[in-house]
Structures are given as structure tokens and as C-alpha cells.
Amino acid sequence: MARHDEQPEDLYTAPITLPGAAGTDGEDTDLEVPEISYDEQRYPARPRRLRPRDQFRGGSVRRNMTDPRTANGSNPSYVEWLVRQSMLKDADVLARQLSGQPAMWRNPYARPDARRAISTTDVWFTAYPISLITRPGQSFLAALGDDRLWSVFERIGITAIHTGPVKRAGGITDWRETPSVDGHFDRISTSIDPAFGTEEEFRTLCDVADAHGGSVIDDIVPGHTGKGADFRLAEMGFKDYPGIYHMVEIPPEDWHLLPDVPEGYDSVNLDSANEHELAERGYIIGAMQRVIFYTPGVKETNWSATAPVIGPDGATRRWVYLHYFKQGQPSINWLDPTFAGMRLVIGDALHSLGELGTSALRLDANGFLGVEKSAEGLPAWSEGHPLSHAANHIIAGMVRKVGGFTFQELNLTIEDIRDTGAVGADLSYDFIGRPGYHHALATGQTEFLRLALTSSLELGVAPVQLVHGMQNHDELTYELVHWATRHGDDVYRFRGRDITGSELAEEIRADLTEHLTGTADYNRVFTQNGIACTTTSLIAASRGIARLDDIADADVPGIRDAHLLLCAYNAWQPGVFALSGWDLVGMLTVPADEVADLLGAGDTRWIERGAHDLLDADPTATRSASGMPRGRALYGALPTQLDDPESFASRLSGILDLRREHGIATASQVDIPEVAHAGMLVLVHRLDEGDPHADAAMQVTVLNFSPEPTEGTVRSEQLVPRSEVYDAASGETIGRVDDLQSFSVSLPGYGAKFLVLRAPEPLED
Which of 99, 166, 442, 712 could cross-link with 196 by S-S, CB 3.0 to 4.6 Å? Predict the structure, then answer.
């Protein structure tokens, strides 16, 4: 996309010349005396400085004598440079290029369509740019576009790469860029970060993926940006830029209400007293429903105050701005009269889909797009706000309009996921079952997982609408928002007793913390959000291994079997299946002392983001090109794994073959029956591609989350008596459904079976 060759917007208004503005000095005494003017008639005693003509004085260009190196609003060159860097400027250019084109009307866009999205691609590899080890001198994007990698993915059954955020992120201070504060989810530009490659390499990646029948998925962040050019221009009060953000200008007479900003910082977080005082005076709407990433002394509220900033008009301003996440991630305002925030986000989306060639976009932090003052004494309304639904409808509709699809990362209640998905994103990340299956593995009991899955079906979120993920760059999330907030007072039956939703959430969190961090020295709690771990380190802790160095080669088969069980759980149900490089190579967490500088700010997730080498591209590398230390991989590089039929990757390929052969990705989940053994889970599906009237076979996924062998009975009203039950992996018949609509099954420890039912022959008269 042409960016830097665009002419900058006019920064100042040219001097105004009025007709008849030449003054008279009384020399021409013969001039005819004009009639009395309107101004003299209407305002005979009005001071000259208040008369309309005199108000134009001082409105021309200010001739500032500024050092060209000055990095503030008094330097027109600096302001112009920021404008050229800004996402809003790029968005305006893109919009003009696409507006009125016939391609904008060729695709349906009104309603989400999960099965259409899944038919495009149903098994995703989720990359994390800073953690991939590449060949020396090879960029991250060039590595992802390597034909060898796609050949390996094709053998395994992976059909898409989710690149993760690869556009420039972080901030701008003076004339220099500053690093990302949140793994490149604090975007400041539509251009590719040179640390990851070039736009041409991104386009090549899309071409190679297409040649292997695959797709590429990118990210947009509709909830916030970093502190880049757009935010710096907003601080200056320049044109539409303040309209991008939830930011309020505080007049100088009330600056005493704001905390001082220490030298070397550009803003400081408000404490609860500052927040309350500013809310009482009507400047901000006050406390939110929760403080994400709450850390005493670092982030105690969702509001921060800027240092004084001089603008192009010569005025010095201080602002208070909203940030749901870190201080360097100012929140976007989706209902400002300029609609600048909306324009910025849509422009970023169109750039990825049109300029780069991606097929889909992840919507990060898209559940926090509306905020409103609540009744006196209550926190402001932010989560589940109708504006979020409306904004998501606009984003997802625009993406569908140009032929793509979206999925959302929305960690809210099941109802919020349902309502947002009804008009917005085509798919949602599975925050419903994910903590449940982690809890099942950690405890060997599936009761909470079954409760979560049945609640989802009852409330209208089917698994086909979800992206069932293994590890990604985030923590094992255990906020359990559904149970802890909206359903906090509801009563559930759990472990033989009645318990409220909030008590249930607390008990599940306690279980996970105890089993995964109680004795294990390699997993860590991450704020109030969850636990920093990898899938393999979670399994190791569940198996009672206390120290990272204690994980021996003899432990690998048991860890691998449990890992494949989790893959089968996620892959053998409707929806998308996603896994990461850390999963594929069996990565353990990185020792804390190797990332001590990154942990200093309290973000323990860095221990789970170790560098890994998928293709054995650089066996001697101890770090990725971005500097992440290499972690210990239990399974090894993919080409070597695929030469071993018992390896993780080879057996994963078999799991995905069954998934694709029987069309489970677009099937309908019809039952999650009670089980005879605490560690067993049964999922019943119709292989109907979403058509309830189709003559479709029944499929049953049976899983054992316990390390011990088990036998049990599968019973469901959805099963047809006398149907033959056969194991799709072995081809063997294991029994028939009896007249009580049940059959028996046995499973090894961490076992998984993909069972298909053949309908009985009609009885003769």
C-alpha cells in the first residue's frame, strides 16, 4: 500500500484575505461616505476586538521559530511526520481506493456463518512471531512461507496459519519508536514490522499457503492501539485524532486533581481516589466492572493521566484516558462524532485482507468497545454493552463483504459470546471448554467440563461456533467470567452439593492453582487471570512432577499420551481445532531466570513463550532472532517426528485424518450424557453438516482424562437401538446399542476413541 508518498494533510489554515480589506488613512477626503454598516448599527458600542471583522485577526499561520529537531506540537515538521506514520491517515487512503468498487457488493455479509468459515479452513497453526527459530538471516514471515513447512503441515493436516500480530507495535517517543508492551498487540501502524519481514514476504506466504490448499489468518485489535503516532497526535488535540480514543481533556485549573507524572514517563495510572474524584466532578465515568491485569502500584484502575503536551495551536493539554489492559494500550472510542476510531480499525482490516491477501482476521479484545456511566454507586457498564455488539457487527460485516471471515477472542459470559456472535464474528475462541478440559486433566474428573459444555448448549452456543484451542501465547485462563459474574448467585450441583456460581469459580481456580503450581516450580500464576504454562508443563504438573529438571525421557510417553488426549478432545467435536508450535514440539516452560528482565513487570506469561524450531532450521540457536531463549522440546522437530509412527506429530495426523474423513468439524453436537466413571467424557454428534433433516450417521467421542484404564457404559437418548458401534481408527466393531440406548466401552489411561454408529437394518414384518 502506498503510504509515505502520500501528501501530508494541511497542518495549518492559510491566511484569509477579505475583499475590501485595504485600509484608508484619510487622504482621500472626497470619497463618498458609505451607509452605516450592519455591525455599526447592530452593535454601536461593541468593542472592536469582538466585532466579526476583528475576530479574523490572529487567525493566520503562526510563524513559529522552532528547532527542526524539536519533537512536540510546536514543530510542524514533527506533526507532519506523525501524520504520515498514523493508522488513521492510512485508513482514509484505503477507504477512498475501495469506495464504490463493484467487488464490495459480491459477498453476503449480514449474518455470521460458522460452517462457511470452517469449510475454508478447519485446522489452524497459531504462530507467535518472536518465538519461532528460523534459518540464520531468514525472517519470521519468510519462514512461515517456506514450502517445506507447508509440506509438513499438509502431511499433518494443518490447513491455515494464524500469523499472530506482525505489524508495527509499541509506541513513539520523540522521533523514535519504543518496544511493544504486550507482544505486539499494541499496534501503531498498518505496515509490517521489519523485525518480522516485509509486506512482499507476507504476500508470498499467502501464495504458498494457497498452493497447498491453505489459508493465512491475520489479527486486528478493535479495542485499543499502542501509543504510536495516532495517540501522540490525539494528545496534541490535532484534528480528528482525539476522537479515536476514550480520552478527556482536563482544564488547567483542575490539573491539581491529577497525579504528577515522573520524569521519563508520559503517563501515570490513577489510583482509586483520583478515579473517584474525577468521576464526582463529571470528567470520567469512574470505575469499570473489573480491572484487568490488576497490579498494586502499577495498575489499580483502568484510567491514566498524561503529562502536559503542547499542541500545534500552542495550547498545552493534559488528558485522562481509558485503557482496559496495559497503560500503553489506550482504548478506542467507537461512538465519537468523528468516528475516527471506527475508520482506523476498518482501514487496518481492509489492509490485511486487500493489500496483504489474508483470508480471515482475529478480533482481539473486541468485547470492550462500549462503555457507559451506570447508576450512582455502581461501576460503569462496559462488558456486554450493546455498542460492542453493534461495533462487532460492523467489523465482521465489512470483512464478510470483502470475502473474508472473523473470529473473536471474547472471554465473557456464554450469553455475551452468543449475543455478539449472533451478528458479529463468524467464530469465537473457546473460553467455555478450555478451562474445563484443563481442570479435567489436572484432577482426573470431568464433572466441571461437562457442566460447562451442557451450559453452553442450553444457552445457545454450539461447539461448531467455536475455535477449540490448545496452547497459545496467553495464559491458561481461569477467570471463569460466566460463573463468577452474571451467574455468581445461581446455584449449581457440583461434587454432590449445591454451590453458587461464584463459589464454583473460586473452587475451580483453587483446584487449578494447587495442581499446577502447588508443587511444580515451572508454572506460575499470572495476575488474577490464570496460570502461565505450556500444555506439556501442565501435563507434567498434573502427573506430579515437581521440578523442571526432573522431567526425564522416561516421562515423555505419558506426557505425549495425555497431550494427544487433549488434541482428540478439541479435534473430535464440531468447530475449528487450533494448536501452536509449542504444542507441536512439546515445549516446556522456560526457566524464570532466563526471562527475568521480562518478568520484572509482573507478566509471568513469558515463561511459556520459549523459542522453538519446527524444521530444525538452526539446531545451534539458543535464542530466536527476537531474543527469546530456546525452551526444551520433548518431541523434537517435525520432519524427524513424521519419520516415527509413534511420535506426537504422526499420531496427531491420525486424529486429524478421522476428523476430516467423517466431517466432524461441521457436525451437530446433540448430547453430553452422564458418565459411569469420573474421568470419562462422552460427546454425541450427528454428522449432518448442520442440516437437522439430513439422514446422517451418529458419532460418539469417548475420552478418558484419567491416567488409569477405565471401563464404562455410554448411554444417550440420541442413540438408536441395535446400531452397530465401530471404532473408526481400527475399523473394528466393539458392540451394539442395546434397547436401553447404551453400549459398553473400555479405554486405556488417557485413551480416546472415535466411534461411528451404523444404523440397524429394518426389521422384517
Answer: 166
